[in-house]
Amino acid sequence: MNRKAALGNDPGFFHAASRGAMLYNRVIKGVNGKGGRMEDTLKVICTEDCGNAPRKQLLKDVKTAWAKKDTSFVLAYLAEDIHWEIPGKNSIHGKDPFALELEKQDQNTITELHLQTIITHGKTAAVNGTITEQNGKQLAFCDVFHFTSAGKKAPIKEIISYVLPL
Fold first, then answer.
1. Residue 33 pLDDT > 50, yes or no?
2. How far apart are CA 117 and CA 136, in angstroms?
3. pTM as predicted
4. Per-domain residue ranges for the chain?
5. Which ranges of the sequence are coiled-coil (predicted)?
6. How many CB atoms lie within 10 A of CB 36?
């Protein structure tokens, strides 16, 4: 598979196939907390699939944007009345509170996102994997997604996130 076929025309991406997994590296820019700019590399590791499930790609893109703290991208795929629950911690209702909570979450830069499994069926989906932060901290996660319908363009209406430190 050539680079353009796999990743479009974005020159910031390159990929390497290794043991059935795709590795995407992208130089991303973010604010370093001191008002200056910084460049970080986010590695996204995700097992290849048959490509017949468009929601898998959508969830991969949403989780990648989430890791990059690209709140506007994530919000574009959420229903106005989104409900986000982190059992034992938070229950958020609505896009604005969701955006605020996302911004408040751990301020450490994520350097690696490993999406181990993406499962979709009807209006339900789940993604599990691990993240590694710049400070070396690792977390395992599983996000369960409920869409407003089984339609291809249906927004996400509920997310239940389970997060464990490793």
1. no
2. 22
3. 0.75
4. 3-165
5. none
6. 7
For 63-106, write each residue's pLDDT tens digit: 999 999 899 999 999 999 999 999 998 899 999 999 998 888 76
Q: What share of the chain is helix, strand, coil (3-state, %, to 5)?
A: 20, 50, 30
- Backbone φ, ψ for residue 78 (5° rounding): -105, 145
Give Cβ neighbours of residue 20 (< 8 Å, ≥ 6 apart).
47, 48
DSSP-derived 3-state class of residue 107: coil
Q: Architecture of domain 3-165 in CATH?
A: Roll (3.10)
**Tens digit of each residue's pLDDT (9 = 90 or more) over 94-121:** 999 999 988 887 677 899 999 999 999 9
The residue behind tokens 């181990």 is 116
The alpha-carbon radius of gyration of the chain (Å, integer) is 16
Q: Say if residues 12 and 40 touch (Cβ distance below 8 Å).
A: no
The model's confidence at residue 24, banded by pLDDT at 50, 70 and 90, is very low
Determine the Cα–Cα distance for residues 82 and 112; give it in Å rounded to an integer.
26
- Can you say whether residue 29 is alpha, beta or left, with left for phi > 0 and alpha for psi between -120 and 50 degrees? beta
* Burial per residue of 13-22, b for 16 or more beta-carbon CB atoms within 10 angstroms, e otherwise: eeeeeeeeeb
pLDDT at residue 15 is higher than 70: no
